[in-house]
Amino acid sequence: MTAARAGDGTANSDRRPCSATDVRGRGFSSRAALPVMEGWIDAAVAPLPPLAVPLADLAATLAEGVVLAAPVTAPGNWPPADRAARDGVAVASSDTLGAGSYNPVPLPGAVTVAAGEPMPPGTDAVLPVEAMQTDGPFVEALGSAAPGEGVERQGEGLRAGTVLLKAGHRLRPQDLGLLAALGIDVVHVGARPRVRIVLAGGPRSGPETLCAMLAALVARDGGVVELVGPLPADRAALAAAYAAPGADLLISAGRTGVGEDDVAPLALADAGGLALHGVALRPGDSAALGWAGGMPAVLLPGEPMACLTAYELLAGRAVRRLGGRDPALPHPAVPAVTVRKLVSEIGCTELYRVRRTADGMVEPVASPHRPGLAGAVLADGFVLIPADSEGVPAGATVTLRCFDGTNL
Amino acid sequence: MTAARAGDGTANSDRRPCSATDVRGRGFSSRAALPVMEGWIDAAVAPLPPLAVPLADLAATLAEGVVLAAPVTAPGNWPPADRAARDGVAVASSDTLGAGSYNPVPLPGAVTVAAGEPMPPGTDAVLPVEAMQTDGPFVEALGSAAPGEGVERQGEGLRAGTVLLKAGHRLRPQDLGLLAALGIDVVHVGARPRVRIVLAGGPRSGPETLCAMLAALVARDGGVVELVGPLPADRAALAAAYAAPGADLLISAGRTGVGEDDVAPLALADAGGLALHGVALRPGDSAALGWAGGMPAVLLPGEPMACLTAYELLAGRAVRRLGGRDPALPHPAVPAVTVRKLVSEIGCTELYRVRRTADGMVEPVASPHRPGLAGAVLADGFVLIPADSEGVPAGATVTLRCFDGTNL
């Protein structure tokens, strides 16, 4: 086993000689706590420089998540001048005094305005069109307007310097509309990291089934995918694929366990360095972290549910950090009450796949021990039991992480 | 005003002669209730035929929302045979009887397996590697295993015919993984409707500021955008742009109000038919529905907040229906308690932009009367007050619609 090698681009304090050993046929002597793995990622992975993107180019990719790299503040008071708050006719309110449906009052200077348009000089109110009538070339008011009625005052909407959108904010359609209205046509947003996904195969595995899932996860977290493999369980071939230039992050799936052909950690040691192998996380406990050709690397187990879990808790964090996003889990968190007890081993973070019941509680679909994605497909989300807990009883309030923000 | 003309592709019962009249300079004599507008859309807009898409091609667009056009059921029991539920060594449990750390028991037929791999013939349990030791060529158990321990039984995960994913389900990354594992490599998903966005301008408007917002909204709802304009407020030019072939839906923004240059409804009448003009919705009350060159058409006001509101409640519904999605609002709905009274006019559906307070309540950011997107940008979501309500008092529980599923 080689020592962990320093990456070439990022300073951090975790470049100790590697303490991981070859676990094949022996098992793990210990596994790192999840927060230790997260801490390693946070130290090793720095955000890429932001991109300056024309506003018009953002619309098509907004749904994938685009985050602001710098806050946006109002460049001036908004609206910049008094403007109509509704469609109608701009009038001098004093001209409408006493007007009513039985007392039409002529309005020689009335001007039609639409909501949002500036108030014409000499006007201070907007009468709705329904409160007007035309009599040949003459316009008459059928009601009076108070000064300022139907008008949005200069600066009423926004004061100059107001922070409209914070750094890290995920842009929404209306944000693009306001930026355009403010004349901001280039926006600095988080980079889209180049993520290499290597599928590490072997005679009895089917890592190609992980391909679409991992590509979708990386895209969700803002990355651009380069797919390599499936490759055979060959240490040299994997090491070469890991160390090749052209990516910001390496994610490899498969061949991380204790079998004779589980050579991914050895290949990573050859390609740069194996920093941590084995995590106190179920499923996903054979994940590893390290360096490949100067870039940070995450090895995921090949068992599909373990792969999904280790992606969400480790690899996804690295992708999100590179792109300047919040590194925390992207799944909406809502409180929920357990229908049944969820048991968990002390010392291990465990993930339960759960579904919502008709009365808004959550029940487990699959225990942390059960392999396969069927449980994750039938689930609405997941509950994490932290390592210091032996589980929660029925009726406890837990944090449900929704797989999808639309299924609340 | 011409009569509403039937579309050429869709049978429905709403092809009555048009009752809308020219509102320019006169105002609306009446406005349709929001449910009437929704009902017109539902009758006029039928889903497009689904698409058969290779699984591998779905990963890149999954974040934009891809919905299943048909349910997916388990093609067989899953797993198809007993398989390892954890990494370790497959053994015949009877061979491990009495084994312990002080009583190693030789296991001549032990085979290393990874979680998810089939159980080799003659084995019925998986010992973790940590419960084994090797002594030269010999493998010894340091603990005993009960029959079935560490094994997932055939059919335990899924029974053949179980509905895994319903029609209309929005695909998630793990769904792609399971579909791949089941050998399903082509999926029938909702179509991506071709949506023409026409920006209808005029001397005093800035419809180009709506472009990015509308394109992002249509992309969020699964449409592919064709952008036309900004065009001048010219009836013939707009009618020609509206009626041109090549799209599934027309959305036009701007020039729907009561001003002399608000010619979009007249142009729609020329291009096919104006069915309904004016909706009891604030903001957004000058929206219109009809037909253009045989396709359904939605006209949105040019004031940005009115445009956003009318898109969400009318145009988005049409986009989502075409793509086979749930036509209801896509914004996650959560209960929330009002900090202040929200007043509303009887007979009009009103939209309040609201933000969450530190204690989880909601307070209005902007009244339905206030134009401009600043309020929508500073808001976390919105609350709709239905037409039959004069508002809700402080402390009432309302439904908060979140602008973004990640900000719960």
Automatic annotation (TrEMBL), chains A, B:
Its EC number is 2.10.1.1. Residues 1-25 are annotated as: Disordered. Pathway: Cofactor biosynthesis; molybdopterin biosynthesis. Pfam families: MoCF_biosynth, MoeA_N. The keyword Cell inner membrane does not apply. SMART domains: MoCF_biosynth. Keywords: Magnesium, Metal-binding, Molybdenum, Molybdenum cofactor biosynthesis, Transferase. Catalyzes the insertion of molybdate into adenylated molybdopterin with the concomitant release of AMP. Belongs to the MoeA family. This is Molybdopterin molybdenumtransferase. It comes from Azospirillum aestuarii.
